[in-house]
Design a protein that fits this description.
This protein is an alpha/beta fold. The chain has 2 domains: 3-179, Beta Polymerase, domain 2 (2-Layer Sandwich), CATH 3.30.460.10; 237-363, no CATH class. 55% of the residues lie in helices and 10% in strands. It has helices at 8-42, 56-66, 89-102, 158-171, 180-220, 230-238, 243-250, 265-271, 277-299, 311-323, 327-339, 343-356, and strands at residues 48-53, 80-86, 104-105, 111-112, 127-132, 151-157, 256-258, 306-308. The strands form 2 sheets. Strands 1, 2, 3, 4, 5 and 6 form a 6-stranded mixed β-sheet that branches. A two-stranded parallel sheet has the order 7-8. It is elongated, with a radius of gyration of 32 Å.
Length: 364
């Protein structure tokens, strides 16, 4: 359709659109970047931040339907559209707080579609904010109109976004009304997905509560009550359970301690049959002197002046395995578990068994 056939008012709005198109494109680059930077600073993890500029064809269709309600092209608030997709329902609230801090929100024209009650509206339960960029946040002398143009920000979860796309393809893309039975099945699926969305958020909150409880128990010293898992072990490492032994070992040569990630020892402790943090605590108490004896033999006559912080837990496990009769096979298994299977591990196991066979702890 040629523009000359349009209503003069629509024609004028389209002319304004073309004049401001460079500004829209600049905003399409600027706003998502501002959001990503702010999310990163605030520690908010989102699935994606997308943007689109309404095409002339799409805008023309909108103006032909209700162009008279717009006095100026700036009255069209969704020419620049931003979509923030979150992993969890409750992260939408965090995103809104960012928007309210960064931008001016046009509350009169913003819409909370999450209040919809229809069972088949799951994919459209997004929150829509109409925003503008305040001059104190950002100005561009080349595009002063940027602070006057409003843009739309849609916020929804990954599942809501996926459902909206699937429902659009199956329900509307063909342009043919789908039978009622299929609509019903889609509605049932929408309810299931909404339940999944809510469950993900609930589980996330429960895991956060569990981590806080573990941290409190670790701090209180009630280690025998804490099952050995990833979260518990991480909290345990934060109190430095191996630090005392490691400092004593380092004092042999006045060596510097090089901190390393000790999380790989979790799999080893689990494989050794440990069930709680109390089991690791008992390992430290019962095999402290043996681990120190091993270190004295290994580095006492050397000039090593830098030691990995993994020496302490490894020597504890070495002493435990040897005292339990694991021998060379058990030591090789330890190295395989920590570092992955390797022929070199067999050589290390042989050397370590030879080094420790006459140490005092082996005869006690």
């Amino acid at each position: 359709m040629n523009e000359t056939t349009f209503d003069p008012h629509v024609q004028e709005l389209l002319t304004q659109y073309h004049q401001l198109l460079p500004v829209y494109e600049q905003m399409g680059d600027l706003v998502p970047g501002m959001l990503r930077n702010f999310f990163a600073e605030a520690g908010i993890i989102v699935a994606s931040v997308e943007h689109r500029i309404k095409t002339e064809k799409s805008l023309t269709g909108k103006l032909q339907l209700k162009g008279q309600k717009y006095h100026h092209i700036n009255d069209v608030t969704d020419i620049v559209g931003i979509r923030v997709i979150t992993f969890y329902n409750d992260d939408v609230g965090k995103v809104t707080s960012v928007l309210e801090r960064l931008f001016v929100v046009d509350w009169e024209n913003s819409i909370d579609k999450r209040k919809a009650l229809e069972i088949d509206s799951f994919g459209y339960l997004s929150l829509h904010y109409i925003c503008s960029i305040p001059t104190e946040t950002y100005t561009d002398p080349k595009y002063p109109e940027m602070n006057e143009i409003r843009f739309e920000v849609q916020m929804r979860t990954v599942l809501q976004h996926a459902w909206a796309n699937m429902n659009h393809d199956t329900g509307y893309k063909s342009g043919v009304e789908i039978p009622r039975v299929y609509k019903r099945n889609l509605s049932r699926l929408a309810g299931m997905l909404e339940l999944v969305d809510d469950e993900f958020s609930r589980i996330r909150h429960e895991l956060a509560d569990y981590r806080r409880q573990v941290q409190k128990l670790v701090a209180s010293g009630n280690l025998s009550e804490i099952p050995l898992d990833g979260d518990a072990f991480k909290s345990y490492l934060e109190i430095g359970p191996f630090d005392g032994l490691m400092r004593r070992i380092a004092s042999i040569n006045q060596a510097e301690i090089q901190p390393v990630n000790l999380s790989p020892f979790l799999n080893l402790f689990l494989a050794m049959g440990f069930k709680t943090l109390g089991d690791i605590d008992a390992l430290i108490k019962n095999y402290y002197d043996a681990a120190y004896q091993i270190a004295c033999y290994q580095i006492g006559l050397t000039d090593i002046d830098i030691l990995s912080s993994s020496v302490a837990p490894q020597n504890l496990c070495t002493a435990y395995i040897l005292k339990k009769g694991g021998g060379r096979v058990g030591l090789k298994w330890m190295f395989d578990t920590l570092n992955g299977p390797s022929e070199a591990n067999e050589i290390l196991a042989d050397m370590l068994e030879e080094q420790t066979k006459d140490l005092a702890f082996m005869n006690q």
